[in-house]
Specification:
The complex is a heterodimer of chains A (307) and B (278).
Chain A (H helix, E strand, L loop, with lengths): L1 H47 L2 E2 L7 E2 L3 H7 L2 H32 L6 H13 L2 H11 L7 H8 L15 H26 L3 H9 L4 H12 L1 H16 L3 H7 L13 H10 L4 H31 L1
Antiparallel strand pairs in A: 1-2
Chain B lengths: L1 H36 L22 H8 L2 H32 L5 H12 L3 H14 L6 H9 L2 H12 L3 H9 L4 H12 L1 H17 L2 H6 L8 H11 L4 H35 L2
Helix pairs in contact in B: 1-13, 2-13, 3-6, 3-7, 3-10, 3-12, 4-7, 7-13, 10-13, 12-13
Classes of the chains: A mainly alpha (307), B mainly alpha (278).
């Protein structure tokens, strides 16, 4: 009897083991690549931020010196400031337009698919190509479309856009909103389609107008979506690099202090100055910011849910 | 009653006006791009602006191929994009199947490792990753770009979310019929996951095709460069060749638009499962 139970037990164990192996075989191809080339470097980034290293000589442990150095570097502080300004304007601006577009395009109107597709165009278009157009539309010369518009329709002075230090961030923010709102619109559309029609019908019976329906049904029902969109948007804003490189970088891609952002600073320290320790330290600062934002928003979301 | 109907008409007129305005905002840059690509440089900034040039200069579209090795750049990009998209689809959907439909030891820990790295921007570890690849002798190779893009946690997450929505009973029934897990994956799950696969194709294709920072860091030999890097190089060198720049830009956009338009009907469905229902 005991032997039988033992045999059965062993049999089950063997079966579970076989099941484990099958599951691992499914995961292995992706996981190996992921562990070696993503997890590994993440850990390495942590170590490197406490080291002095130029990439060829041996690493030297220097404690927190990289951090004290970057926080007394003007260029780093400027990049931090610019990244924050960029995020503060880009996030709410993109969010509101994306939501408005999604609400308009969630109605049963003719040509809805056409508009949805068009709104997504800037997002899929390659950055180099559309940035080239923007640089021509927003050229500091008077012949550019935007300056013509400013002069002839709004009767104001033409702007120097990306060529002047006081309008360069504005140009970058406008471009970023234009390029990415289609993506967040699609996410909001998905969220809107998850709201049950019954809620709106009940509200209509109670005599609620469109505005009240929006405030009391749409906004609260969209809370999870808004939460997701805000996190994604903020993280993506802190990752900004190529937009700045295309719009504000000169012919050799050098960005000056008025438009320098965090990732640009990391890139420059690492691949132009070969100060890999300092680059990793600033990368960790970037990570700390992103992590804090995510955690704060998660907390906020939880509090909402408890209300 | 009548005024209510009038209100409705006025309302939809306003909606259309806003939509048409927004659509114009989205489309004008592209229209301008095509228009300028058919012009002589001297005519691009002429006032008043001409949308359709009187003597369209089709030659821009021929000259651009000889001015820079555009064919080589395109070939490199097509190669990288196809390999990365293929690998990404295969390995992600494969791993996601195990996470969604199989019970095994260490499942939660492994999945947590994936999910938590989604929140770590690539820019945080791009420097050590580059040093590591250089150590392996992979700097300035296409293989490095492929490795960089092909194993994303995002893909696994997206596919898993979708599989979770497919009832387990489907797999159970197949198991009782004696089907192996590999067979269930390939004959039941894959055909059902078209919306998620299309979304993943669009994202991976667009990201790889348009990637800039990766190739900028890794690829130094000109003959290995991608379309984006090559295009940027051309713009830096010939910044006054407006017509040619725009012609090259138009050409570089065509493939992503073709892929996007042919898959977009699955797209909204796919994005729903991937993001919000998390």
């Amino acid at each position: 009897m005991a032997e039988e139970v033992y045999a059965l037990d062993k049999n089950m164990k063997r079966r579970q083991q076989k099941r484990n192996l099958v599951a691992y075989s499914f995961i292995a191809p992706n996981f190996l690549g992921f562990a070696i080339f993503t997890l590994g470097p993440i850990i390495l980034a942590l170590i490197m931020s406490f080291m002095e290293w130029d990439g060829s000589n041996t690493m030297k442990f220097i404690g927190l010196q990289n951090f004290t150095e970057i926080f007394s570097d003007d260029r780093f502080l400027a990049s931090l400031k610019n990244t924050i300004i960029y995020s503060i304007f880009t996030v709410p601006f993109t969010l509101v337009i994306a939501l408005a577009l999604a609400i308009l395009l969630n109605q049963k109107i003719k040509g809805r698919n056409f508009f949805r597709t068009v709104a997504f165009f800037p997002y899929v278009a390659s950055l180099v190509a559309v940035a080239a157009v923007w640089n021509m539309l927003f050229t500091p010369a008077k012949g550019g479309i935007m300056n013509q518009l400013l002069m002839n329709v709004f009767h104001v002075q033409p702007l120097k856009w990306a060529a002047a230090s006081n309008t360069v961030m504005l140009t970058i923010i406008l471009f970023s909103v234009w390029k990415n709102m289609g993506y967040y619109m699609v996410i909001y559309l998905a969220g809107l389609q998850g709201i049950s029609e019954d809620l709106y019908e009940a509200a209509a019976l109670d005599g609620a107008n469109s505005w009240r329906k929006f405030i009391h049904i749409t906004v609260p029902q969209l809370k999870p979506t808004t939460f997701f969109v805000t996190i994604m948007l903020t993280i993506n804003c802190f990752k900004v690099y190529d937009i700045v490189y295309m719009l504000a970088g000169g012919s050799n891609g050098v960005v000056n202090k008025s438009a320098m952002v965090l990732v640009y600073y990391i890139y420059e320290e690492a691949f132009r100055n070969w100060k890999l320790g300092r680059a990793s330290a600033s990368a960790l600062v970037l990570f700390a910011i992103v992590l804090t934002i995510t955690i704060v928003q998660f907390r906020g979301e939880k509090n909402y849910a408890n209300d | 009653m009548r005024s209510k109907k009038n209100n409705k008409v006025i309302g939809s007129v306003i909606v259309y006006i806003i939509l048409i305005f927004l659509a114009l905002m989205m489309l004008v840059p592209f229209a301008w791009m095509i228009s300028a690509s058919l012009k002589f440089n001297k005519d691009v900034f002429v006032i008043p602006f001409e949308w359709i040039s009187k003597e369209p200069r089709w030659k821009n579209y021929i000259d651009i191929w000889t001015k820079i090795p555009l064919a080589k750049f395109t070939l490199n990009t097509v190669k990288l994009t196809l390999i990365v998209t293929g690998l990404q689809l295969l390995t992600s959907s494969f791993a996601a199947y195990a996470f969604a439909k199989l019970q095994f030891k260490g499942k939660n820990v492994l999945f947590l490792a994936y999910v938590s790295t989604i929140a770590v921007p690539w820019q945080v570890y791009m420097v050590p990753q580059f040093m590591f690849m250089r150590k392996l002798g992979l700097a300035d190779t296409h293989l490095a770009i492929i490795i960089l893009q092909a194993f994303s946690a995002f893909g696994v997450f997206l596919m898993r979310q979708f599989y979770e929505g497919i009832p387990d009973s489907l797999c159970e029934a197949a198991r009782i019929d004696g089907m192996s897990e590999y067979k269930i994956y390939s004959t039941i799950m894959l055909p059902l996951s078209k919306p998620a696969l299309s979304t993943l194709i669009i994202f991976t294709f667009v990201n790889t095709w348009n990637d800039f920072l990766g190739p900028l860091i890794y690829l130094t030999t000109e003959s290995k460069k991608t379309l984006q890097i090559g295009l940027k190089m051309f713009i830096s060198q010939y910044s006054a060749e407006y017509g040619l720049i725009m012609a090259a830009s138009v050409l570089s956009l065509i493939p992503v638009f073709v892929v996007f338009l042919s898959l977009q009907k699955y797209f909204v469905a796919g994005i729903t499962t991937g993001s919000v229902k998390g």
